Amino acid sequence: MPPAAPAVTHRGVGGGVRSAAQLVFRSFPFPTEPGLRVFGTPDRSSPVFVTSNFDYTVRLVSRVLENYDCYLLVAPTGGVNVWCASAGGHFGVDEVEAAIKLSGIGDLVDHHRLVLPRLTAPGVDPKEVRSRTGWRVVFGPIDIDELPGWLDESFPRLVADVVTFPVARRVEMGIGAGLWPAGLLGVPAAIIGGWQAGLLTAGLAYVLSVLFAVAYPRLPAAPGLPQAVPLAGVLGVVAAATAWGSGGTVFDIVFWAVTLALMGLLIGLDFPSWSPTDVCKQQLLCFLYPATLAPAGFLPTVDEPACVDGCDICVKICPKGAMTLQDNHKATLLDPDGCLSCFACVQQCPVDAIS
């Protein structure tokens, strides 16, 4: 069995710099070493948690688990965060099995129960995990801040949980998401219009990314193209009017109109793919990442004869609360518009009654 790595949370100046770098460049993988982390003085009945090897995630989880006697298995997900890794096919049964084997956790505990993040449900099939490893999967809460309450009150019971995307998280994502339009437009803008135009374009991309992050859930149109096209049009018109009003040349008017329109289009299309409330619905994301488990627009269908009466696993596992039990105690999709097309209900149905 390989030696357990110490549980390090990286607080202080070094941790602050690392967090800042991961905030701005969070679209890039930030891997940390997979394997076993030990917290406190666990015994053979202590809980075993699993997470991705995205460094920021491991540090967040560690800050909560350091108050418990437990084990943490860091799965080799390529340095990608839990939700993106699961929805993109990088956090599945293979990665869970690898984490078990890499850690030698079977020699340290008498039980065979793993606590996985709720947002791995689209990618992890508990039936296959148990068949291949002998370990049973339990899903904890969506938000890491809710983990202590769940451990004290509900562990290991599955409880209903709905994903949220509060403004603070949206701003964080906006800062990171702004890197793409800043780079994709800033460099060409500098080549065509000069370095000042390039810097202004990059700066506007960052500011607009953060502003869009705050506003996009409240916009009347649906995320994706319905938001991106009007945003591009408005920005293009405003940019052209501003350039014309300031006495700019025809080149200036066209240059800024096209640059700002493209900026709005890129941000409007890309940002929802960062959101756990919209990510799996995005046509663009599914085109760019064909490993995504469900096609865009997928809606689950329940085979009622096969569905177990009163089984509510799909209802509780749905991150948007879109599933419910009918009067006949069979599961059904209550809210098609709220469905994320994330595939979690399909993966978690114990009798494969959902497709």
From TrEMBL:
Pfam families named in the record: CdhD, Fer4_7
SUPFAM superfamilies: 4Fe-4S ferredoxins
Cofactor: [4Fe-4S] cluster
Annotated TM spans: 197-216, 228-247, 253-271
Domain 4Fe-4S ferredoxin-type: residue ranges: 298-328, 330-355
InterPro entries hit by this protein: 4Fe4S_Fe-S-bd (IPR017896), 4Fe4S_Fe_S_CS (IPR017900), Ac-CoA_synth_d_su_TIM-brl (IPR016041), HgcAB-like (IPR050003), PSI_iron-sulfur_center (IPR050157)
UniProt KW keywords: 4Fe-4S, Iron, Iron-sulfur, Membrane, Metal-binding, Transmembrane, Transmembrane helix
Recorded GO MF terms: 4 iron, 4 sulfur cluster binding; metal ion binding
Stored NCBIfam families: HgcAB_like
Name of the protein this chain belongs to: 4Fe-4S dicluster protein
Organism whose genome encodes this protein: Actinocrispum wychmicini
Lineage of the organism: Bacteria, Bacillati, Actinomycetota, Actinomycetes, Pseudonocardiales
